[in-house]
Amino acid sequence: MAINLNKREKLSVIAASAALLIFVLLQFLVFPLLDKNDRLSSKLISRQQELEQIRLLQAEFRQTSQKAEEVQRFINRRKRGFTLFSFLETLAGKTNVKNNIAYMRPTSTAGKDSPYRLSLVEMKLSDITTSQLMAYLHGIEASNNMIFVKRLSISKEERKADLITTVFQVETLEK
């Protein structure tokens, strides 16, 4: 059965067929390719950001490893049998504040999965001068034993205006 169509109808059928073909090509070929390209571009940007984060973490890890090695070298250079408590007591004698020690409270915390423990001493010095305190703190911070003043509280004596009382915490790592 042959269909006889006039010229106008043939043009309409060809235009409709072309439109349908363009629609099918766009819907099933071009748009999926564009979507895939967008997804790949997004994935590439995401992977580049992840790579940058990895590089930053790698640099941070190297820096932390170097610091850990440096700490280990410092600890290994200490005299055998070093303890924070005895160091502070000896330094108090050298800086003439030993008689002003109200108390020294040592504590120690073992590090998880570490050969080191955190040693901390809370100390109170009563009726000392500012220069005595400065000499004592300088002795702590200037030592090559990786000792740090963690917290410091200074109060003025009411009885004697030129004297102070101080409470501070000193910490270090020990084997």
Descriptive overview:
By secondary structure, the chain is α+β, with helices and mostly antiparallel strands. It has two domains: 8-77; 84-174, 2-Layer Sandwich (Alpha-Beta Plaits). The chain contains three helices and four strands, in the order ααββαββ. It starts with 6 loop residues before the first helix and ends with a strand. Keywords: Membrane, Transmembrane, Transmembrane helix. This is General secretion pathway protein M. The chain crosses the membrane at residues 12-34.
Uncertain parts: none
Strand count, sense and barrel status of the largest sheet are: 4 strands, antiparallel
Q: Give helix and strand order, one letter per element, not per position.
A: HHEEHEE
Name the overall outline. Answer: rod-shaped
- Share in β-strands: 15-25%
| Number of beta-strand segments | 4
The tally of helices reads 3
Radius of gyration, in Å, reads 38 Å
Say what the CATH topology of the largest domain is: Alpha-Beta Plaits
CATH superfamily of the largest domain: Ribosomal protein S6/Translation elongation factor EF1B
The CATH architecture classification of the largest domain is 2-Layer Sandwich
How far apart are the termini? 101 Å
What is the CATH class name of the largest domain?
A: Alpha Beta
Helicity level, as a percent range? 40-55%
Report the average pLDDT across residues: 89
Number of domains: 2
Reading side by side through the largest sheet, how are the strands ordered? 1-2-4-3
